[in-house]
Amino acid sequence: MKQPYGKTRFLSRKFRAYLDLLRPFTLLAPFFVSMFIMFASFVSTYQFKNYPSNWWITIGQASLTLAFLNGASNALNQSTDVESDKISKPYRPIPRGLVEKEEAQSIAYLLYLFALLRAVTINLWFGVFVFLIMMFTVVYSLPPRMKRFLFINQVWVAIPRGLFAILASWSVFGNPFQPVPLLIGGIAMVYFMGAMTTKDIVDCEADRKTGTRTLINTFGLKKAAYISLPFLILPFATIPVFIHFDILKPYFLPLIIFMIPAFFVFYLMLKQHENQTMENVSAWSLMYLTYLFYAISFTTLIILGEMGYIPFFPHI
User: Fold this and answer.
1) What is the pLDDT of residues 56-106, one digit of tens each?
2) 5-306 in CATH: which number?
3) Measuring CA to CA, which residue among 236, 234, 241 is closest to residue 315?
4) Between the CA atoms of 48, 50, 51 and 52, what dihedral angle is there, to the nearest 10 degrees?
5) pTM of the model
6) CB neighbours (10 Å) of residue 68?
7) What value does the CA radius of gyration of the chain take, rounded to a whole number of Å?
8) Higher local confidence (pLDDT), 49 or 55
9) Which of 63, 122, 155, 267 lies deepest, with the highest CB count within 10 Å?
């Protein structure tokens, strides 16, 4: 996105501007996370017995639906953050004058409509969760614009991106209100409450000048990082407790290892070095990678655990 548009080789400037509006790199995490959670739901529900023959097509379609939903959110957010982007991200397509605000909003609404209509054809609960995610992302950017309010903005992003995204993915094949998806989604939600601080580092001054209060521009980077730290670490640290009370199966114990990259997210927040090729800082990139590998590891443990390939951990 930061490269000059004159370097575009295979796409027209206008088409690349539309593509950058969706921020394709940020769509990879929701696509792959949802795909792995759906596969975990499929394995847990069917255990490779009497399963629908087109299950892999369903996973692909549902994962793309959530990716389009995220793209809609990105486009809408940029259409409402023009003044802030002129300060901190002038390379984006709207500040550059390549895309009009109204165009960006029209693209966002079309993608929202497509995602919602596609979701309800998969199943009812998937459609409900997609609708809830849509509502959270819309009012995050548009009035009452939850993005403006300190603390609320952190929670408002964490609920759809962590909890609802996991439950939506699980609902494709399984019951989203079972303890496992609720807890796995809850852990992701609490993690995001702290991790979303990383996205505000680059926008610190721009947010201050445009009336958005964040942990960074209210308390400073160091205090904001320490406020975020418990939310990064504790959700993974509670996994042994859930195992002890038989809420999670013992084979989920290895997930506590994600306390380590979560701590490094905190460490990189303090370093505050901006990545030269991506939009945001390295802590933000590590945050998304941690979320992705959390989903991959969870799915792997589900598969191996349900098939009996993981030795039974002692009761904690």
Assistant:
1) 999 999 999 999 999 999 999 999 999 999 999 999 999 999 999 999 999
2) 1.10.600
3) 241
4) 160
5) 0.92
6) 23
7) 20
8) 55
9) 63
